[in-house]
Write a structure and sequence with these properties.
By secondary structure, the chain is an alpha/beta fold. It has helices at residues 33-39, 75-87, 107-113, 133-140, 152-162, 212-219, 223-238, and strands spanning 14-18, 23-26, 65-71, 91-98, 116-121, 128-129, 145-149, 169-172, 188-191, 194-197, 204-206. Strands 6-5-4-3-7-8-11 form a 7-stranded mixed beta sheet, sandwiched between helices. The chain has a two-stranded antiparallel ribbon with strand order 1-2. The structure holds FE2/S2 (inorganic) cluster. Residues 177-180, 182-187, 197-199 line the site of FE2/S2 (inorganic) cluster. The site of FE2/S2 (inorganic) cluster has 13 residues, from loops.
Length: 249
């Protein structure tokens, strides 16, 4: 997704669609320059372009009991998977993970779509504190399949928790991307010792085979440049550079 002609591409996961209207929905946090620019768009404004869908289809079928874990902003696309898994005849238990109470959203939607819902937060201000409760849950209940959408560290932690129980665990990757066509290699992820590209081989991979440590390192590769770029954008916006007027008195 590119907001304007000089913008960068950012990978986002679809969280909804309306086939009749021909629309798709995305959810994002305003964490960097590009997402802040996108947050400045008003109804009726245009993005420069949207490329996709990239990669492969999600495997949606009747598995039996499915555990679906969504974390942070990825709660939104996780619920799309919950909806599809339910429609395929599965019993779906949904876990919503967030940093703290203020960051929890779509809980009502999750309850309406799922057979069971658990909430967990990093600081314990809502639901369970952390994801350790999953260890107890897996001791009590048997799951046939697990899907996880969220921050890399969360996907790693859930994959580690499900591994001893042999629950096939699918994680959705949105690594740093440039061309989105399998040519630049920026989105590479090591899976089972093999190099894969998030944009063409993904976005879903076997969570028990992903080299998460390498992925965490790669995600941090451009952090200083991203922070600088975001800071410069904020200064630009404060001085009236952005037309949305959001921060103007
Ligand atoms: S984004 Fe360039 S190869 Fe995937």
């Amino acid at each position: 997704m590119v907001p304007h002609e000089k913008g960068e591409r950012v990978p986002l996961t679809i969280c909804g669609y309306d086939a009749e209207k021909g629309t798709v929905s995305f959810a994002f946090h305003e964490v960097g320059k590009t997402t802040k620019q996108m947050g400045c768009l008003n109804e009726g404004d245009c993005l420069m372009n949207v490329t996709g869908p990239l990669g492969n289809l999600s495997e949606i079928k009747k598995f039996g009991k499915v555990l679906c874990v969504g974390g942070s902003i990825m709660i939104a696309p996780a619920l799309l998977q919950v909806k599809a898994m339910k429609a395929a005849g599965n019993h779906v238990t949904t876990v919503l993970g967030c940093r703290s109470k203020d960051f929890l959203f779509m809980e009502d939607e999750a309850k309406a779509l799922s057979d069971k819902v658990y909430v967990a937060s990093d600081d314990g201000t809502v639901g369970y504190k952390g994801l350790d409760f999953l260890k107890d849950l897996l001791k009590k209940e048997k799951f046939d399949h697990c899907v996880v959408l969220g921050p890399v560290v969360m996907m790693r932690d859930v994959s580690e928790i499900t591994k001893p129980y042999g629950i096939p665990t699918i994680v959705t990757m949105t690594p740093i991307m440039i061309d989105g066509m399998g040519m630049c290699g920026v989105c590479r992820v090591t899976v089972g010792g093999e190099m894969k590209f998030g944009c063409v081989d993904g976005p879903e991979f076997d969570g028990h085979k992903v080299d998460f440590e390498e992925l965490v390192q790669r995600q941090r590769l451009m952090l200083p440049e991203e922070r600088l770029s975001s800071m410069l954008w904020e200064i630009h916006e404060e001085h009236g550079g952005c037309k949305c007027g959001r921060n103007k008195a």
